[in-house]
Structure formats: C-alpha cells, structure tokens
Design a protein that fits this description.
single chain, mainly alpha, 6 helices, rod-shaped
Length: 205
C-alpha cells in the first residue's frame, strides 16, 4: 500500500494538514531550540559577567599587598587584610549564587588560593614584627654597650689621672730625698774640710 493510496481516502484539507504539519512542527521545534539556546547563552553570559566582576577584586588585593610589601606598616597590613577578606566574601557569595546553575569548582579553587594569600599576608606581618623586635633589641643592646663603654672610659681616665698624680707625688718626694741627701753630703764635706783646716791651737781652744 502506497502513500498515495492512503491519502486518497482523506479530504484535500486533511491531506494538506498532514503534509504541512511536519513542516510546522519542524519550524516550531527549531524556534524552541533557538529560544532555549538563546536563554542558555544569555545565562552563560550573565554568569561570565558575574565571575569576571568577582575576579576584578584581585586588582585591589594585588595593589594593597604591593603597598604593604613596599611599606610594611600596621595601616598597610590592615588594608591588605581587609581587601583579601572582602575578596573572599565576594567569591563565596558568587559561588553560592551560581552553584545551582553551573560548575563552581574554579571559583572554589580561587577561594582556596585566596585563603593562601591571606595566610601568607599574616606570615609576612609576623615576620615584620619579629624583625622590628630584633632591631629594637639590637638597638637597646648597642645603647647599653655604648653607655658601658663611656662609663669604662670615664673610669679609665680617672685611673690614669690618679696614677699620674701619684707618679708626680712620688717624683717630687724622690727629688726632695735626693736634695736632702745632696745637702747632707755637702754639709758633711764642709765639716770635714773645716776640721782639717783648723790649727792645733784652735782645736785646744
């Protein structure tokens, strides 16, 4: 049995309907698929925009951490920490929002890496605090050594001055002893000479 023999049993309107219906269904199916694809593409674009906006926060994180590395002050550390925490919150919110719509494994990986950034930032600040403490201890030790050196210098100067005075006193005493001895010798010589020069008559007298 051919298609013509089957269609010969129906009216012309029915034949037209049966012939046109597959084309209409095909066109409708193409339209539905196109609409679905359009909606899917629009959703993907929106997801991409949200993800890109969330990733844009890393520019501020990089800038603040770079500023902290250039000048490791408490203010710059607090700013870098705040920017990192804000980026973590942003990624968490986006991940929770898109989790039901698409795969968020890359966002979760970025969030994990951001945790690593925060941890490294805290380690850098801890090292900076240790460096400052060590520098302060070294300065205090150096100041104490300088003060001790100055005190030792004063004591050494006093000892040298006292030794010089004692040496001068001893020299003066020695000189006086030498002078007395010399005068004693001269007096003894004078007496001896006088005794030899006197006559026997003078001695009896």
């Amino acid at each position: 049995m051919t298609i013509d023999s089957i269609l010969s049993r129906f009216k012309i309107q029915t034949k037209i309907f049966l012939m046109v219906t597959p084309f209409v269904l095909s066109i409708a199916l193409v339209g539905v698929v196109g609409l679905y694809s359009n909606q899917l593409l629009r959703g993907r674009i929106e997801i991409s925009n949200v993800v890109l906006q969330s990733m844009d926060g890393y520019k501020q994180v990089f800038a603040s951490i770079s500023g902290f590395l250039r000048d490791p002050s408490k203010q710059n550390f607090d700013k870098a920490s705040a920017d990192v925490e804000q980026q973590k919150e942003r990624l968490s919110d986006v991940g929770a929002q898109l989790k039901a719509q698409t795969d968020v494994s890359l966002l979760e990986q970025a969030l994990s890496q951001t945790d690593g950034i925060a941890e490294n930032n805290n380690k850098l600040w801890k090292l900076e605090q240790e460096r400052v403490d060590i520098q302060a201890n070294v300065k205090a030790t150096f100041d104490a050594m300088t003060a001790t050196q100055a005190q030792v210098g004063k004591i050494a100067f006093k000892l040298i001055a006292d030794g010089t005075r004692q040496q001068n006193t001893q020299k003066a005493a020695l000189k006086l002893s030498v002078d007395i001895d010399t005068q004693t010798r001269q007096l003894a010589s004078f007496i001896d000479a006088f005794a030899k020069a006197a006559t026997p008559a003078d001695r009896k007298a």
